[in-house]
Amino acid sequence: MVEYRTLFLNAHAKSLKWDLQPPDLRRPERIPSRAALLSCRNRVETAMATSFRGFSAQCGAVHFCAIQQIYSTREIDMPYVTIGDVLVRGKPRYGASYQKLKQAKRHGLGKNENIDCHVWLTFPDMTIFDLTLGVGLAYEREKVLVDEQKDCCVIWGKPEELLKKNGLDYRPYLVGHLFLFQSGMLEPTIL
């Protein structure tokens, strides 16, 4: 099994090759704490004027908003927008592929179209922070009553821990927020 850091570095290299201008890779300085990540989630809810229960279908917008919230507070290191797929108990959740991503980059998405990929954040220490996948998984398991004061729908941790404890295997394909705009996942007016 290829470790997450290697997959992430390959995704960064692919992003450079595709001229997506990914951010420079940095050494971790301020490791994200549980409190800081939950605070970020709450600020994203406020900024997007929606409960985190509505996040699951908007992974690009939610995580781009999270980047802006983290930048505004500078409590923790800036994470990288990461685009790819997640294997849930060994099965691909989104069916992402480089071919599909390249097509979306070239042609963009039409109105009401989705792209087969997922967006999450990766911190310089390789901690994964995902505000959207947990919501979708909770609904599918019919655990609709979610205590908003708890972090039960926020997924965060080291990739190997998430795989071992939750059966979640994150697979990065691209790094950087520029793809979100070039593919049409986000419109420039969000800035």
Give a written overview of the molecule:
- The structure is a single chain.
- The protein has 191 residues and is an alpha+beta fold.
- The protein has 7 helices and 6 strands.
- Strands 1, 2, 3, 4, 5 and 6 form a 6-stranded antiparallel β-sheet that branches.
- A hairpin with a 5-residue loop joins β3 (118-122) and β4.
- α2 (34-48) crosses α3.
- The protein is globular, with a radius of gyration of 15 Å.
Topology summary:
Blueprint (H helix, E strand, L loop, with lengths): L3 H14 L16 H15 L10 H15 L6 E9 L2 E2 L5 H10 L10 E5 L5 E3 L2 H8 L14 E3 L1 H8 L1 E8 L2 H5 L9
Antiparallel strand pairs: 1-2, 1-3, 1-6, 3-4, 4-5
How many helices? The count is: 7
Unreliable stretches, pLDDT < 50, 5 or more residues? 142-151
> Tell me about the biggest sheet?
6 strands, antiparallel
The secondary-structure class comes to alpha+beta
Radius of gyration: 15 Å
Helical amount among residues, as a percent range? 25-40%
